[in-house]
Amino acid sequence: MPENKSKLLIPAVGTALIVAGGIAAYMYFKGGTAGDISGAIPSAKVVPNEALMATYISTDPKVWEKLEQFGTPEAQKLVAKGLENFNQDVLNDSNFSYEKDLKPWIGGVMIAVLPPTPTQPAQFNGTSPTPNGLITRRLPETETLMVVGIKDKLAALNFANKLKERKGVTTKETDYKGQKITETISKGKPTYSAMLNNHVVLAPEKQAVEQAINTFKGEPSFITKEGANTILTKGVNLENTVAQVYIPDYASTVQQASQLPPQTLTQLKSVKSMVVGVGIDDGGVRMKAIANLDPALVKFQYQSTPSQVVSQLPADTIALISGQGINKWWSALVEQSKDYPEFKQVLEQARAQLKVVNIDLDKEIFGWMDGEFGFAAIPANQGMLAQVGFGGAFLFHTSYRKTAEATFTKLDTLAKTQQINIAPRNIGGKDMIEWQVPRQGALLAHGWLNQNTLVVTVGDSVVDAIAASKEQSLDNSENFKAVTGSLQKPNGGYFYLDMNKILSLINRFTKQSQPLPPEANAVLSSIHGVGITANSPDNSTAQMEMLLALKQKNK
Fold first, then answer.
1. How far apart are CA 313 and CA 317, in angstroms?
2. Measured in Å, how far apart are the chain's first and last C-alpha atoms?
3. CA 231, CA 240: separation in Å to the nearest integer?
4. How far is CA 121 from CA 141, 188, 194, 255, 470, in A?
5. What span, in angstroms and rounded, lies between the C-alpha atoms of 447 and 463?
6. How many other CB atoms are there within 10 angstroms of residue 58's CB atom?
7. Distance in angstroms (rounded) separating the CA atoms of residues 128 and 280
8. Burial class of residue 178 (count of CB atoms within 10 Å of its CB; 0-12, 13-18, 19+)
9. How many Å apart are CA 367 and CA 550, to the nearest integer?
10. Which residues are 427's β-sheet partners?
11. Omega into 490 within 30° of 0, i.e. cis?
12. pLDDT digit string, tens, across residues 181-195
């Protein structure tokens, strides 16, 4: 749990318990919330209906202990040291620690974001100059409400009694609709809290606690908000969920958080609600996000990919972005540019510049990119990119081969005018064209891997790694399997990072100037890689999944 949250909890929650507790209530102090993700719904019932979003954090030890199976010995020591420092910081500040004094009784924490209240100072709605002299409207500040579940009320009371002995904290109680609100002042900063059955609510503003009491007394809660019940009940399907974020009205929430033009807000309205979850499983730390969409407002058409480009890349690929149907994404982007004059101007300038060399941006560059694509970073140990250590590979599956060939014929002709040598090569039985720069080697190469797969590479030796490769392909590599094998299928493509190879490149660049700190090196060495993918099971749902693949502790 973050340090600032625990420091807020110690004086405020404890004082609330002192007020609420007593020996006469002993029998009442037997039950409470469990602390796992199931506690989100009970917590949401005391969050006001006006809340823009809410985050629930599990305090179930079994969930967090799953992390202990991962990491190198060095990384494990860093984690242990970090926890020790955290406890020491809290101990020095309040004479309490999360592990001994809070963990036994806290049963999950929900943090809700409430909209600005009309009683806030007028200056929050004013204007302020930016460094370039422009005047911008300052957004009103939102409020925060924390709902803390109590899984063991007796332990909570014992903690509250212990808290009585703490010095430097002043408290004042007021009554609101029959509920006690405690104002706790520590180091000049007030915190307001109240105990509502199995929960303690606390906030830096008294009005937020009053709103929670109103909800507790029967006013509409967050769970009754349109769209909230569904995402709270369904959540995301994760093992060992440690946290979930619930956003029932996505467009309204984003609008409150930032100043957006009307066109952007209209696009955001295509997302009705969203839930994001983080969990820990045998693969590592996994995140899933599910967005509920309005099909009538969705501009981009989702397409799943056959993932064939993965089998056309070498196993030592450093990074990959793959997907499907660039031409349709481009068409949708062009359509949306009509609402953005600045972007439309840039688009028209690009079209005009290519028109000078007789190339149609829409038809001859993007028009034939109708199939699967892959953009990859491939190791390169010779030529002009040898010092960098990697080059680029771009694969395009297309059903418009003649159009693509005509485009590259024009590009080859244009390259010749820049004193670039256009040299044909046969690599592994495949005809390729290289753009060669005198005394520096190959700048670029392009050709066909099969009837419908165009490959374009940047850097010497990269084209050989793909066109002539007889080595293991990326889809069969152990690291790729570890990072992406458990991600959802079918999907719209992959984002993939091989952390082992990236760390090697980082150390290569930094060892001469400023070596990577041992702590950072230990953490990165514990990661296999990062994998992200997305899919859309129907036209009203979009899902994204990310895995931070971690190495097992004994490996």
1. 7
2. 28
3. 18
4. 10, 20, 25, 20, 69
5. 9
6. 25
7. 44
8. exposed
9. 40
10. 430
11. yes
12. 988 887 778 889 888
pLDDT at 61: 84
Q: Position 82: which residue type? A: G
More confident residue, 461 or 91: 461
Instruction: Name 398's Cβ contacts closer than 8 Å, sequence gap at least 6.
Output: 368, 369, 370, 371, 404, 452, 454
Q: What is the dihedral of CA 375, 378, 382, 386, to 10 degrees?
A: 90
CA-wise closest residue to 143 among 192, 108, 197: 192
The tokens describing 15, both together, are 């004082």
pLDDT tens string 460-512: 889 999 998 667 899 999 999 999 999 999 999 999 999 999 999 888 887 76
Beta strand pairing call for 390-397 and 527-538: unpaired
Contacts for 308 with CB less than 8 Å, ≥ 6 apart: 372, 397
Task: Please state the length of the chain.
Answer: 555
pTM of the model: 0.86
CB atoms closer than 10 angstroms to residue 553: 15
Measured CA to CA, the distance from residue 194 to residue 303 in angstroms comes to: 50
Rounded mean pLDDT, 43-62: 93
Q: Beta partners for 114?
A: 143
What letter does residue 99 receive in the DSSP assignment? Answer: I
AA letter at 437: V
CA 432 – CA 444 distance, rounded (Å): 10
